Amino acid sequence: MPAWQLLLLFFSVLIGGGSGFYFQKEKKGLLQIVLSFSGSYILGIAVLHLMPWVFSGGDHQPGLWILAGFFVQLLLEQLSVGVEHGHIHAPHKFSNTFVLSVMAGLCIHAFVEGMPLSYYGEMHQAEVGAGHTHNHLLYGIILHHIPAAFALVVLLLVSQLQKKWVWLCLFIFAAMSPLGALLADSISIPTPWQKSILAFAVGSLLHISTVILFEMDSSSHHYISTKKLAAIAAGLFISILTIL
Ligand SMILES: [Zn+2]
Ligand SMILES: [Zn+2]
Ligand SMILES: [Zn+2]
What we know:
Elements: H1 3-18, H2 28-54, H3 61-80, H4 96-114, H5 117-128, H6 136-158, H7 163-187, H8 191-215, H9 226-241
Helix pairs in contact: 1-6, 1-7, 2-6, 2-8, 2-9, 3-4, 3-8, 4-6, 4-7, 6-7
Bound molecules: zinc ion (3 copies).
């Protein structure tokens, strides 16, 4: 995996999170729009790009890994209070355990999701053709980790954690997916396992994207604003463009 991709991943998450220090209130509307877009884009690339490759062997095993990824993600969100889908749920009373639990939930997710990045780009290119150099998985991860980093920073600031510790948490989170990719690179994972790990990551992406789309309707009145609908449509449209 090219170094620029690792750097892009690291710095976009760092900048997305860093903006949480300056625009806590003003940017919440923008956060919702970015989230709506990323929810449908991630769902799109998962179904259009990642799943066909994962299932290309024709057996049932990848399905089991997808289910495992989906439900492990559900459990991880008990720890992280939903920060990975960009949500800042009810401010909690500050405690070190709370910060550790949020970080654990978020970092385990980001690390595992980073692993398939080390080989997905090349595999996809080998399958579809040499001119095909984009890395959907990379963009999918960046798109939801920017709002996640923002939500993490706002949540920790609201929880009265000191700024220097919030920065440290943000740094650790931003480093997780690149570290996962570097680890996977260094141990050169055998091909059947590559599929299983990607399938597991696809399961967590499916969970995150569907939760984003469900929680868009924050009032539970089956009402989604026009702006959000437009962002959802744009995410879907762009993900479909990638198969043309
Ligand atoms: Zn949520
Ligand atoms: Zn993620
Ligand atoms: Zn493609």
